[in-house]
């Protein structure tokens, strides 16, 4: 599963991914931020993560500053808050797709 194209629109706060199978996923920054897989946000070794106990985050946390690619297998969004430890593998990213097709498949 590889993205053919990744377009991060900082203004709109969205990441638009076209996959090599032709599928297209549009992610909102907010959805991605809440899905951050890093140890701080998601927890590790049985410890709950930061995101489990909160319902709100400061607006800075949802503002995309940049999106880096990590090797050939993942992207790492950089947030205006400075948070950037979340590494979203392409597989994980694809599983976050919220389109009708993916939503109804699960
Ligand atoms: Zn995180
Ligand atoms: Zn989809």
Describe the protein's architecture and organization.
With about 110 residues, the chain is of the alpha+beta class. The protein has a single domain (about 5-100), classed as NE0471 N-terminal domain-like (2-Layer Sandwich). The chain contains 4 helices and 6 strands. The protein has helices spanning about 30-35, 40, 90-95, 100-105, and strands at about 5-10, 15-20, 25-30, 65-70, 75-80, 90. A 3-stranded antiparallel beta sheet has the order 1-2-3. Strands 4-5-6 form a 3-stranded antiparallel beta sheet. The longest helix is centred in the N-terminal third of the chain and has 6 residues, at about 30-35. The protein is globular, with a radius of gyration of 14 Å. The two termini are about 20 Å apart. The model has no long low-confidence stretch (mean pLDDT about 95). The site of one zinc ion (ZN) has 7 residues, from helix 2.
Order of helices and strands: EEEHHEEEHH
Label the CATH architecture.
2-Layer Sandwich
DSSP strand tally? 6
Describe the sheet with the most strands: 3 strands, antiparallel
Give average pLDDT, whole number. 94
Overall geometric form: globular
What is the strand content?
25-35%
The proportion of residues forming helix, as a percent range, comes to 10-25%
**How many alpha or pi helices?**
4
Task: Kindly report how far apart the N and C termini lie.
Answer: 18 Å
Summarize the structure.
It is built from four helices and six strands. The chain is an alpha+beta fold and 106 residues long.
